[in-house]
Amino acid sequence: MDRTWPKSGVDDALYYINSGYKPANLHQWGPGVRDVYALHLVITGRGKLEQGGSVFSLEAGQSFIIFPNQEIFYYPDLEDPWEYVWVEFHGKDASRLVELTQFSELQPVVTEAPDTLQPFYDLEWSVGASYLEQMRADAKVKVLLSYYMEYFPRQAEAEPKDYVWMARTYIEQNYWKPTLTVTEIVQAVNLERSYLFRRFKAATGESISAYLTSYRIRRACELLKLSGLSIQSIAYSVGYHDPLYFSRVFKKATSHTPSAYMMLHQKK
Protein backbone atom coordinates (compact mmCIF):
# COMPACT_ATOMS: atom_id res chain seq x y z
CA MET A 1 0.00 0.00 0.00
CA ASP A 2 1.12 3.54 -0.67
CA ARG A 3 1.04 6.10 2.08
CA THR A 4 1.20 9.86 2.15
CA TRP A 5 3.92 10.93 4.56
CA PRO A 6 4.98 14.18 6.19
CA LYS A 7 7.95 15.71 4.40
CA SER A 8 10.37 15.34 7.32
CA GLY A 9 11.36 12.51 9.61
CA VAL A 10 10.16 9.62 7.46
CA ASP A 11 13.56 8.01 7.00
CA ASP A 12 14.07 7.76 10.76
CA ALA A 13 10.60 6.41 11.55
CA LEU A 14 9.14 3.03 12.14
CA TYR A 15 6.02 2.88 10.07
CA TYR A 16 3.23 0.42 9.57
CA ILE A 17 2.62 -0.93 6.07
CA ASN A 18 -0.05 -3.60 6.24
CA SER A 19 -1.38 -6.42 8.38
CA GLY A 20 -3.88 -9.21 8.22
CA TYR A 21 -5.11 -12.68 9.05
CA LYS A 22 -4.65 -15.80 6.95
CA PRO A 23 -7.08 -18.66 7.66
CA ALA A 24 -5.88 -22.24 7.37
CA ASN A 25 -5.38 -23.02 3.66
CA LEU A 26 -2.65 -23.99 1.24
CA HIS A 27 -1.49 -20.45 0.45
CA GLN A 28 2.28 -20.13 -0.02
CA TRP A 29 4.64 -17.32 -0.99
CA GLY A 30 7.94 -17.32 -2.85
CA PRO A 31 10.65 -17.95 -3.52
CA GLY A 32 11.12 -14.18 -3.63
CA VAL A 33 12.19 -11.10 -1.71
CA ARG A 34 10.28 -8.35 0.05
CA ASP A 35 11.45 -4.82 0.78
CA VAL A 36 9.75 -4.65 4.19
CA TYR A 37 9.84 -6.48 7.50
CA ALA A 38 6.96 -8.97 7.84
CA LEU A 39 6.35 -10.41 11.30
CA HIS A 40 4.12 -13.49 11.54
CA LEU A 41 2.50 -15.37 14.44
CA VAL A 42 1.25 -18.91 13.86
CA ILE A 43 -2.12 -19.44 15.55
CA THR A 44 -2.84 -23.05 14.65
CA GLY A 45 -1.38 -25.71 12.35
CA ARG A 46 2.11 -26.03 10.94
CA GLY A 47 4.24 -24.68 8.12
CA LYS A 48 7.78 -24.11 6.93
CA LEU A 49 10.01 -21.15 6.18
CA GLU A 50 13.00 -21.49 3.85
CA GLN A 51 15.63 -18.77 4.11
CA GLY A 52 19.38 -18.55 3.59
CA GLY A 53 19.67 -22.23 2.79
CA SER A 54 17.93 -23.27 6.02
CA VAL A 55 14.47 -24.75 6.54
CA PHE A 56 12.56 -23.78 9.69
CA SER A 57 9.55 -25.81 10.85
CA LEU A 58 6.89 -23.77 12.61
CA GLU A 59 3.84 -24.61 14.68
CA ALA A 60 1.19 -22.85 16.76
CA GLY A 61 2.57 -20.18 19.09
CA GLN A 62 5.79 -19.62 17.18
CA SER A 63 6.70 -16.45 15.31
CA PHE A 64 8.86 -15.78 12.30
CA ILE A 65 10.02 -12.62 10.59
CA ILE A 66 10.90 -11.87 7.00
CA PHE A 67 13.80 -9.45 6.60
CA PRO A 68 13.96 -6.94 3.74
CA ASN A 69 15.72 -8.18 0.60
CA GLN A 70 16.20 -11.73 1.93
CA GLU A 71 15.04 -14.47 -0.43
CA ILE A 72 12.41 -16.54 1.34
CA PHE A 73 9.82 -19.23 0.65
CA TYR A 74 7.12 -20.13 3.14
CA TYR A 75 4.32 -22.64 2.82
CA PRO A 76 1.83 -24.60 4.96
CA ASP A 77 1.95 -28.22 6.02
CA LEU A 78 -0.28 -30.15 3.63
CA GLU A 79 -1.85 -32.25 6.40
CA ASP A 80 -2.24 -29.47 9.01
CA PRO A 81 -2.02 -26.08 7.22
CA TRP A 82 -1.24 -23.15 9.40
CA GLU A 83 -3.42 -20.22 10.35
CA TYR A 84 -1.54 -17.01 11.12
CA VAL A 85 -1.61 -13.25 11.56
CA TRP A 86 1.03 -10.87 10.23
CA VAL A 87 2.12 -7.25 10.23
CA GLU A 88 4.45 -5.47 7.79
CA PHE A 89 6.54 -2.44 8.70
CA HIS A 90 9.64 -0.53 7.67
CA GLY A 91 11.84 2.47 8.48
CA LYS A 92 15.29 2.96 9.98
CA ASP A 93 13.93 2.57 13.50
CA ALA A 94 12.52 -0.82 12.49
CA SER A 95 15.95 -2.42 12.10
CA ARG A 96 17.13 -0.97 15.42
CA LEU A 97 14.16 -2.43 17.30
CA VAL A 98 14.29 -5.81 15.60
CA GLU A 99 17.98 -6.02 16.53
CA LEU A 100 16.93 -5.82 20.20
CA THR A 101 15.10 -9.14 19.84
CA GLN A 102 16.38 -12.66 19.20
CA PHE A 103 15.31 -12.40 15.55
CA SER A 104 18.17 -12.41 13.08
CA GLU A 105 18.70 -13.29 9.44
CA LEU A 106 20.28 -16.56 10.60
CA GLN A 107 17.54 -17.26 13.16
CA PRO A 108 14.25 -15.69 11.99
CA VAL A 109 12.10 -17.86 14.30
CA VAL A 110 11.30 -17.58 18.02
CA THR A 111 9.39 -19.95 20.24
CA GLU A 112 6.06 -19.41 21.97
CA ALA A 113 5.70 -16.32 24.15
CA PRO A 114 4.42 -16.67 27.74
CA ASP A 115 1.24 -14.80 26.82
CA THR A 116 -0.51 -14.71 23.48
CA LEU A 117 0.61 -11.87 21.22
CA GLN A 118 -2.23 -12.25 18.76
CA PRO A 119 -4.29 -9.24 19.96
CA PHE A 120 -1.35 -6.94 19.25
CA TYR A 121 -1.47 -7.91 15.58
CA ASP A 122 -4.96 -6.43 15.31
CA LEU A 123 -3.94 -3.32 13.39
CA GLU A 124 -6.19 -1.54 10.95
CA TRP A 125 -5.21 0.95 8.31
CA SER A 126 -6.52 1.69 4.86
CA VAL A 127 -5.81 3.98 1.96
CA GLY A 128 -7.29 7.34 2.82
CA ALA A 129 -6.68 6.99 6.55
CA SER A 130 -5.87 10.23 8.31
CA TYR A 131 -2.35 11.07 9.43
CA LEU A 132 -3.45 10.61 13.06
CA GLU A 133 -4.71 7.11 12.26
CA GLN A 134 -1.38 6.39 10.58
CA MET A 135 0.44 7.58 13.70
CA ARG A 136 -1.64 5.28 15.90
CA ALA A 137 -0.93 2.30 13.64
CA ASP A 138 2.81 3.08 13.73
CA ALA A 139 2.67 3.28 17.53
CA LYS A 140 0.90 -0.08 17.74
CA VAL A 141 3.71 -1.71 15.77
CA LYS A 142 6.16 -0.38 18.35
CA VAL A 143 4.01 -1.81 21.13
CA LEU A 144 4.01 -5.20 19.39
CA LEU A 145 7.79 -5.13 18.96
CA SER A 146 8.21 -4.11 22.60
CA TYR A 147 6.66 -7.43 23.64
CA TYR A 148 9.07 -9.35 21.43
CA MET A 149 11.90 -7.34 22.97
CA GLU A 150 10.61 -8.30 26.43
CA TYR A 151 9.88 -11.98 25.77
CA PHE A 152 12.78 -12.60 23.38
CA PRO A 153 15.57 -10.14 24.28
CA ARG A 154 18.96 -10.39 22.67
CA GLN A 155 20.42 -11.22 26.06
CA ALA A 156 23.92 -11.99 24.85
CA GLU A 157 24.29 -8.33 23.94
CA ALA A 158 22.58 -6.93 27.01
CA GLU A 159 24.69 -4.44 28.96
CA PRO A 160 24.77 -4.25 32.77
CA LYS A 161 22.62 -1.55 34.28
CA ASP A 162 24.23 1.86 34.46
CA TYR A 163 22.88 2.99 37.84
CA VAL A 164 24.58 6.37 37.70
CA TRP A 165 22.99 7.06 34.33
CA MET A 166 19.64 5.95 35.74
CA ALA A 167 19.97 8.32 38.71
CA ARG A 168 21.02 11.24 36.51
CA THR A 169 18.19 10.57 34.09
CA TYR A 170 15.66 10.45 36.92
CA ILE A 171 16.95 13.77 38.24
CA GLU A 172 16.87 15.39 34.80
CA GLN A 173 13.29 14.23 34.24
CA ASN A 174 12.00 15.22 37.68
CA TYR A 175 14.13 18.19 38.85
CA TRP A 176 11.13 20.52 38.52
CA LYS A 177 9.30 18.76 41.39
CA PRO A 178 9.80 20.62 44.68
CA THR A 179 9.13 17.35 46.52
CA LEU A 180 11.96 15.46 44.78
CA THR A 181 14.28 13.95 47.39
CA VAL A 182 17.43 11.88 47.41
CA THR A 183 15.41 9.04 48.95
CA GLU A 184 13.01 9.09 45.98
CA ILE A 185 15.93 8.99 43.54
CA VAL A 186 17.50 6.03 45.34
CA GLN A 187 14.16 4.18 45.34
CA ALA A 188 13.69 4.86 41.63
CA VAL A 189 17.11 3.40 40.83
CA ASN A 190 16.48 0.47 43.20
CA LEU A 191 20.03 0.13 44.47
CA GLU A 192 21.46 0.05 47.99
CA ARG A 193 21.78 3.67 49.14
CA SER A 194 25.41 3.87 50.21
CA TYR A 195 26.59 1.86 47.19
CA LEU A 196 24.76 4.21 44.82
CA PHE A 197 26.23 7.21 46.65
CA ARG A 198 29.77 5.89 46.16
CA ARG A 199 29.26 5.07 42.48
CA PHE A 200 27.56 8.40 41.78
CA LYS A 201 30.29 10.45 43.48
CA ALA A 202 33.02 8.51 41.70
CA ALA A 203 31.37 9.02 38.29
CA THR A 204 30.27 12.66 38.59
CA GLY A 205 32.42 14.17 41.32
CA GLU A 206 29.24 15.28 43.10
CA SER A 207 26.82 13.83 45.59
CA ILE A 208 23.31 13.10 44.37
CA SER A 209 21.99 16.08 46.34
CA ALA A 210 24.64 18.39 44.89
CA TYR A 211 23.98 17.13 41.37
CA LEU A 212 20.25 17.84 41.79
CA THR A 213 20.99 21.38 42.93
CA SER A 214 23.55 22.04 40.21
CA TYR A 215 21.20 20.69 37.53
CA ARG A 216 18.41 22.95 38.78
CA ILE A 217 20.75 25.92 38.71
CA ARG A 218 21.97 25.11 35.18
CA ARG A 219 18.37 24.92 34.03
CA ALA A 220 17.56 28.18 35.81
CA CYS A 221 20.49 29.88 34.04
CA GLU A 222 19.10 28.77 30.69
CA LEU A 223 15.69 30.17 31.54
CA LEU A 224 17.09 33.44 32.87
CA LYS A 225 18.99 33.94 29.62
CA LEU A 226 16.30 33.01 27.14
CA SER A 227 12.80 32.60 28.51
CA GLY A 228 11.72 36.09 29.51
CA LEU A 229 9.91 34.58 32.50
CA SER A 230 9.74 36.26 35.88
CA ILE A 231 12.09 35.17 38.66
CA GLN A 232 9.16 33.59 40.49
CA SER A 233 8.11 31.57 37.44
CA ILE A 234 11.67 30.39 36.89
CA ALA A 235 11.98 29.38 40.54
CA TYR A 236 8.81 27.31 40.22
CA SER A 237 10.03 25.83 36.95
CA VAL A 238 13.18 24.39 38.51
CA GLY A 239 11.64 23.00 41.68
CA TYR A 240 11.73 25.93 44.13
CA HIS A 241 8.38 27.16 45.38
CA ASP A 242 10.05 29.79 47.57
CA PRO A 243 11.60 32.45 45.29
CA LEU A 244 13.66 33.87 48.16
CA TYR A 245 15.21 30.50 48.92
CA PHE A 246 15.81 30.00 45.19
CA SER A 247 17.63 33.36 45.08
CA ARG A 248 19.90 32.35 47.97
CA VAL A 249 20.75 28.99 46.39
CA PHE A 250 21.31 30.62 42.98
CA LYS A 251 23.63 33.30 44.37
CA LYS A 252 25.66 30.73 46.29
CA ALA A 253 26.13 28.74 43.09
CA THR A 254 26.79 31.59 40.65
CA SER A 255 27.83 34.62 42.78
CA HIS A 256 24.91 36.53 41.21
CA THR A 257 21.33 37.05 42.21
CA PRO A 258 18.85 35.76 39.60
CA SER A 259 17.90 39.31 38.60
CA ALA A 260 21.54 40.36 38.25
CA TYR A 261 22.29 37.25 36.19
CA MET A 262 19.33 38.01 33.96
CA MET A 263 20.48 41.61 33.36
CA LEU A 264 24.04 40.46 32.73
CA HIS A 265 22.90 38.13 29.96
CA GLN A 266 20.14 40.17 28.39
CA LYS A 267 20.44 40.49 24.64
CA LYS A 268 21.63 43.93 23.61
Structural features, described:
This protein is an alpha+beta fold. It folds into two domains: 10-156, Regulatory protein AraC (Jelly Rolls, Sandwich); 163-264, Orthogonal Bundle (Arc Repressor Mutant, subunit A), CATH 1.10.10. The chain is built from nine helices and nine strands. The strands form two sheets. A five-stranded antiparallel sheet has the order 1-8-3-6-9. Strands 2-7-4-5 form a four-stranded antiparallel sheet, with no helix packed on it. A hairpin with a 2-residue loop joins strand 4 (46-51) and strand 5 (54-59). The longest helix has 21 residues, at 131-151. It is elongated, with a radius of gyration of 26 Å. The N and C termini lie far apart (54 Å). Mean pLDDT is 87; it is low at 1-11. It comes from Paenibacillus silvae. Keywords: DNA-binding, Transcription, Transcription regulation. This is AraC family transcriptional regulator.
